[in-house]
């Protein structure tokens, strides 16, 4: 080719080089359409059943998105410096990407989530499943969307049981004067006041030291917390009264969620559902006959370390009391005023839906 011809093609060559360069620069930008790390907040350590669920979720997200989404659980509310009740607010603002959090900790932003915490309202696993998968559950997720939170799937902390260092509790009078640690969600403070106890509200991050030092006499939490935290080192007495339940919800900042491509949303949603199923089975194992133990064994090839939670607590020296119908009635009577105050705050509509879901 003569020099003249080359000169004629030069502008085209320059163009080609520019186009190629742009394409090269642009492709890494496309690959980086996702953040290096997505932060997930949860209130408890990785050893709790809830924490094991978060670990599972992160693993499944990685697997199902083929490594495109790197989700990192920040256990023990480290992102919130322990302020557990701030989780939903921070995810709604987009300061934190997502959460696996208790309805108790969601309650301050989403009052409807407190429907699970009316005392002696939702009292069995069957009823809990009906409410979560029914109209009330959908109403809670809808309320979350309005506040900028996309609910993905349910998980569980569980039915909360009372433990204390002083005496067996089988009637409201036994609670008189007991200093019981509760979460700062005011529904809990009011319930324990009505029961005659002396509720002390504190974040979970401070609670274990308070048990160790005997600053409080008691607390309430499900077996998925009681066993890993070794509550028997501090409290000799447990009352299994299923007085209320706290489900967990996997949720994401809605704006960020809506910006994800469809296949990524599906992958994360599937991961949340599967992790939720695993984690719910951990929390129910040994409390629902063979059902959850079977789910863990057959679907997840997982063997529980303590498949019989009540017997395990007893083997560690705890006295575990179960209540008769008449004993439960006395607690129901004592906590009735909560309904008058709290049903309007939670929303009459969602409470009615929950009742209907349970066939009442
Ligand atoms: O604070 C609690 O008691 C705990 C760990 O159960 C919750 O985060 C609701």
Secondary structure layout:
Elements: H1 3-31, E1 38-41, H2 49-64, E2 71-74, H3 87-93, E3 98-102, H4 103-106, H5 125-132, H6 135-146, E4 149-159, E5 161-164, E6 179-182, H7 186-194, E7 198-201, H8 204-212, E8 218-221, H9 223-226, E9 237-240, E10 245-253, H10 254-259, H11 262-284, H12 291-300, H13 309-315, E11 319-322, H14 325-335, H15 337-346, H16 348-357
Parallel strand pairs: 1-2, 1-3, 6-7, 6-8, 9-11
Antiparallel strand pairs: 3-10, 4-10, 5-8, 5-9
Helix pairs in contact: 2-11, 6-16, 11-12
(2S)-2-hydroxy-2-methyl-3-oxobutanoic acid is lined by residues 43-44, 84, 102, 104-105, 157, 183, 204, 221, 225, 246.
Provide a descriptive summary of the structure in words.
The chain folds into two domains: 34-158 and 247-300, D-Maltodextrin-Binding Protein, domain 2, CATH 3.40.190.170; 161-244 and 307-357, D-Maltodextrin-Binding Protein, domain 2 (3-Layer(aba) Sandwich), CATH 3.40.190. The protein has 16 helices and eleven strands. It has helices spanning 3-31, 49-64, 87-93, 103-106, 125-132, 135-146, 186-194, 204-212, 223-226, 254-259, 262-284, 291-300, 309-315, 325-335, 337-346, 348-357; strands at residues 38-41, 71-74, 98-102, 149-159, 161-164, 179-182, 198-201, 218-221, 237-240, 245-253, 319-322. The strands form two sheets. The protein has a six-stranded mixed beta sheet, with helices on both faces. The chain has a five-stranded mixed beta sheet with strand order 2-1-3-10-4, sandwiched between helices. It is globular and about 95 Å long. The structure holds (2S)-2-hydroxy-2-methyl-3-oxobutanoic acid (X2X). (2S)-2-hydroxy-2-methyl-3-oxobutanoic acid is lined by residues 43-44, 84, 102, 104-105, 157, 183, 204, 221, 225, 246.
């Amino acid at each position: 080719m003569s020099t003249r011809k080359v000169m004629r093609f030069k502008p085209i060559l320059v163009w080609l080089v520019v186009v190629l360069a742009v394409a090269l620069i642009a492709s890494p930008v496309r690959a980086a359409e996702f953040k290096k790390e997505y932060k997930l907040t949860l209130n408890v350590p990785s050893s709790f059943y809830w924490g094991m669920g978060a670990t599972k979720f992160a693993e499944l997200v990685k697997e199902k998105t083929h490594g495109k989404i790197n989700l990192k659980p920040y256990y023990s509310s480290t992102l919130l410096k322990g302020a557990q009740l701030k989780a939903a607010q921070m995810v709604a603002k987009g300061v934190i990407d997502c959460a696996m959090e208790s309805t108790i900790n969601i309650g301050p932003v989403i009052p409807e989530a407190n429907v699970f915490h009316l005392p002696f309202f939702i009292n069995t696993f069957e009823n809990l499943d009906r409410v979560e998968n029914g109209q009330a559950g959908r109403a809670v997720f809808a309320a979350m969307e309005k506040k900028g939170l996309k609910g993905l799937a349910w998980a569980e902390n569980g039915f909360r049981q009372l433990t204390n260092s002083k005496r067996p509790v089988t009637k409201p009078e036994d609670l008189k004067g007991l200093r019981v640690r509760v979460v700062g969600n005011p529904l809990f403070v009011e319930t324990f006041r009505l029961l005659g106890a002396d509720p002390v509200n504190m974040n979970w991050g401070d609670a274990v030291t308070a048990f160790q030092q005997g600053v409080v006499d008691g607390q309430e939490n499900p077996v998925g917390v009681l066993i890993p935290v070794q509550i028997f080192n501090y409290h000799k007495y447990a009352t299994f009264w299923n007085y209320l339940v706290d489900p967990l919800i996997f949720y994401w900042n809605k704006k960020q969620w809506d910006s994800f491509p469809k296949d990524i949303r599906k992958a994360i949603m599937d991961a949340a559902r599967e992790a939720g199923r695993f984690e719910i089975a951990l929390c129910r194992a040994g409390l629902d006959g063979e059902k959850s133990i079977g789910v863990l064994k057959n679907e997840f090839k997982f063997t529980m370390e303590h498949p019989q939670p009540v017997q395990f607590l007893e083997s560690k020296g705890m006295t575990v009391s179960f209540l008769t119908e008449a004993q439960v009635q006395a607690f129901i009577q004592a906590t009735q005023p909560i309904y008058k105050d709290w049903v309007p705050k939670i929303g009459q509509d969602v409470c009615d839906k929950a009742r209907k879901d349970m066939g009442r």
